[in-house]
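We give the entry.
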Amino acid sequence: MIDTKIFDMLYSYLEERSDNNVRSQLNADPEYQNALAEECELYQKYENLNLSKEQCKVIENWVDAVTAQNSTYSAVLFRMGMQCCFSLLMQLADLK
């Protein structure tokens, strides 16, 4: 298993850059902005459903599980992409 601390460090670096950082990329990405607007709209609808605390807890746990699954999926794809890039760089270095 790969140590994921390197990915945490990379994320922190990308988040803290003064320009061209994660926030500026997300602000400029129309798909992200549309998804964010949709999330806000759906959350407002959820808040207005007047569900019981138990019902809310079930939905919130479900959303947390889906979010965790999507985050893990994204991290695995990112890791695989980085491995492919490093592998390609190593192959190109041998082609001198």
The chain has four helices and no strands. Residues 53-94 form the longest helix (42 residues). The chain has two domains: 1-50, 52-96.
